[in-house]
Write a structure and sequence with these properties.
The structure holds 2 protein chains of 2 kinds. By secondary structure, chain A is α/β, with parallel strands linked by helices. Chain A has 2 domains: 16-145, Beta Polymerase, domain 2, CATH 3.30.460; 159-190. Helix content of chain A is 31%, strand content 22%. Chain A has helices spanning 16-25, 47-59, 119-130, 167-189; strands at residues 31-34, 41-45, 65-73, 81-89, 94-102, 108-110, 133-135. In chain A, strands 1-2-5-4-3 form a 5-stranded mixed sheet. The longest helix of chain A has 23 residues, at 167-189. Residues 1-8 of chain A have low confidence and may be disordered. By secondary structure, chain B is an alpha/beta fold. Chain B has 2 domains: 1-53, no CATH class; 63-191, Rossmann fold. Helix content of chain B is 22%, strand content 18%. Chain B is built from 5 helices and 11 strands. The chains are: A alpha/beta, B alpha/beta. Chains A and B meet through α4 of A and α3 of B.
């Protein structure tokens, strides 16, 4: 039985074998299978179970890679944020998607960096853009925006033009200007 | 129209009747012509001579024909910039091929590409480290106006943080377009007062001691008090030649 489709793409739609393998790996955990438009095997995971689900999928179901960690903001709906993990198995050539819903008041999910070190940047980006914190991440700093930035640009309430996008630059500029004057006056005093 | 006379030594045609002004209004040097009775230039039979011109013209002539660009390639415009300096478009024809990667040796900042707010500090620092006199070309629509990046992360035109001399539109502009921009800049330099690079009188926004802080003359939007917003394009620089009421001791 070939593990790829006729077009040569990984067998994401033919998820019978994937579903069985994942179900066996997640025996006893509270996960719910949902339909995905693209046919990828998708599960909704409770936040408390996410660490264990990721652990078991790696160790028992041979998902060796995490290809995507990102967030979705469903603003009017509650719970507001959805954290998406997509895993890829090199051995079986199939994928699985995990969805975890968290509220905006308590937007914290466990990290995957101890399982896949490559998850670090994706989690940092997700933190940067949505403000979702990844508990256990050793270096959860902003990745794209300046580190002093106060907002999370991919949140729905964030305006298109940003909130004072030049604020940090202007503060820096004023600081330099003051330094310049201090230096000048010190030189004059000498 | 005055008649043109052929120069005896160079074979060039040149004006003979007194100082002529070129289209930009600057004084054009007189060609040494031993047949001319002009007091501004003369040559003896052996060809040794002199010529008189205005110092402004000579200084500006030297400046405009030896621009040293500082390439700040931030995105795809950087590729066009490399092509422009390379042999095919050959910026050396206009004396501006000596690109240096340290701002200390440059006098033409070419902001080529999308300037983000995160990069803006570096860009401003590069500009400040360049010795005077210096000029800025905003290459491409991103650096001219933000271009298609109508976004929180992108500076909506580098004139928000720098005084810009020439804007070159295009996405990215062809090297010919940038060369045209450099020629336009040369025309502009030709008209400048060599002592004072800024022709238009800028707004004085702040006086500290004997320093006057100006709003950059290229700031696109009318003067407003300084607040943080991307739509208010405020740039400040210090005027060295500000009136300096230094206290006289004794």
């Amino acid at each position: 039985m070939s593990s790829t489709t006729d077009s040569g793409r990984p067998a994401t739609s033919k998820s019978g074998a994937t579903a069985a393998r994942v179900a066996a790996a997640l025996e006893g955990l509270n996960v719910r299978t949902v339909d995905a438009r693209d046919g990828m095997h998708s599960l909704v995971v409770e936040r408390g179970d996410l660490a264990e689900v990721l652990n078991r999928l790696q160790s028992r179901a041979q998902f060796e890679q995490v290809t995507l960690i990102t967030g979705v903001d469903h603003l009017p709906a509650q719970p507001r944020f959805e954290v998406v993990h997509q895993l890829w198995s090199l051995v079986h050539r199939d994928r699985v998607r995990l969805k975890t819903f968290v509220t905006s008041e308590d937007a914290v999910v466990p990290t995957a960096t101890h399982l896949w070190p490559g998850a670090a940047f994706m989690e940092r980006e997700c933190f940067d853009m949505f403000g979702i914190r990844f508990e256990g991440h050793e270096n959860l700093r902003r990745l794209l925006m300046p580190e002093d930035y106060e907002h999370h640009p991919l949140r729905k309430e964030f305006p298109h033009h940003g909130i004072e996008p030049d604020k940090l630059y202007r503060a820096w500029e004023r600081e330099r200007r003051d330094e310049f004057f201090e230096r000048r006056s010190a030189e004059e005093a000498r | 129209m005055g008649s043109l006379k052929q120069d005896a030594h160079t074979g060039e045609l040149g004006p003979v009747d007194g100082a002529d002004r070129n289209t930009a209004g600057a004084l054009r040097p007189l060609v040494g012509d031993r047949t001319s009775a002009s007091p501004l230039s003369a040559a003896d039979d052996s060809g040794n001579g002199f010529m008189a011109t205005s110092l402004d013209f000579v200084v500006n002539w030297g400046r405009k024909n030896s621009l040293w660009p500082m390439p700040l390639g931030l995105s795809c415009c950087g590729i066009e910039l490399m092509a422009m300096i390379g042999p095919k478009f050959d910026l050396a024809r206009f004396g501006a091929e000596a690109a240096r990667f340290t701002p200390r040796q440059c006098d033409l900042l070419v902001v080529a590409g999308t300037l983000t707010w995160k990069m803006a500090r570096a860009c401003r620092q590069i500009y400040d480290q360049m010795p005077d006199p210096k000029w800025v070309i905003a290459m491409g629509v991103c650096s001219s106006s933000g271009g298609m990046y109508d976004s929180y992360a992108v500076v909506q035109g580098v004139d928000s943080i720098l005084p810009v001399d020439v804007y070159v539109p295009g996405c990215p502009p062809r090297p010919d377009a940038v060369i045209d921009g450099i020629l336009k800049l040369q025309k502009k330099i030709e008209r400048e007062h060599p002592h004072r690079r800024v022709l238009r009188v800028p707004d004085v926004v702040e006086v500290r001691g004997h320093e006057q802080w100006y709003r950059a003359p290229n700031a696109a939007v009318a003067a407003k008090p300084h607040t943080s917003s991307t739509h208010e394009k405020t740039t400040y620089f210090v005027g060295r030649d500000a009136a300096a009421p230094k206290e006289q001791k004794r």
